[in-house]
Amino acid sequence: MRQEVAVTAMSVSTNKDNESVLASLKRPLRRADGLTTQAVAAAVQAMANAPSRELAPVEVGIFVGTAFGPLETNFRFLDTLFNDGEGQTSPTLFSHSVHNMSAGYISRLLDLRGPALTMTTFAWPFLSALDTAWQFMAQKKIRRALVTAVEAKSAVLEDAIERIGASDHSAPIEKAVACVLDPVEWAPTGYPVLQDLEISERPCAPQNLLTRKEETWTFQPSQCSTGPLDHALAIIRALMDLRSTSADDILTFNITSLFGNARLTWRIKEEINIKSIN
What we know:
Helix content is about 35%, strand content about 25%. By secondary structure, it is an alpha+beta fold. A 9-stranded mixed β-sheet has the order 3-2-4-5-1-6-9-8-7, with helices on both faces.
């Protein structure tokens, strides 16, 4: 079991006519695609809610998780390449087709100069980003971590889902979640403290990853997963509701699927009894 870290801020951003995007960000994001816009909106909100600390920009790391990345932007760029030739391709589309573009926007707009990494995995991209951030903090490479997971709409994915006959699969929408990891001693009483995280992936048929077939969560068994970001949304919402639990409770989020298993364990930070220490 690794050293504990606290989740001191959380946020969820959903593309609904860009309501979640601050007015001050709309000009800097005018060329960004939906994936980057939602990632930035969630990251900015999470950092705004985090405890105030005097940290150098290099002491804060950015860790983004995504399954498909800017897939629609990739295909738009390829369209310009095939239709117009190399000399007429859009440099803006090319730069925004890179998976690490969201992390780059977050770094520039929040002036964060620590590590900026994007983890791409079809299983649980949020947990992979969380795990990597946790390792960087454990190795004292950073003092604070901003973890974001994001997915975007894609006509290609929707067509693939339709072709394999998964009619009950929800159409993907642009969403992002973000959280801030801090040392436990920085967190106020009642905030979630992560104790352990285990991820074990195994090969499976591509259609199982696309439809999340037979993926189940023991923490919220009534909820059906339909996309690679659903686990992140469920975990963030569970962490937001932690204040109603007992300080003695140890909570575990278990995921089982055809493509692997994962487990996240947390508790809430209890109030320290000063008199008993003295």
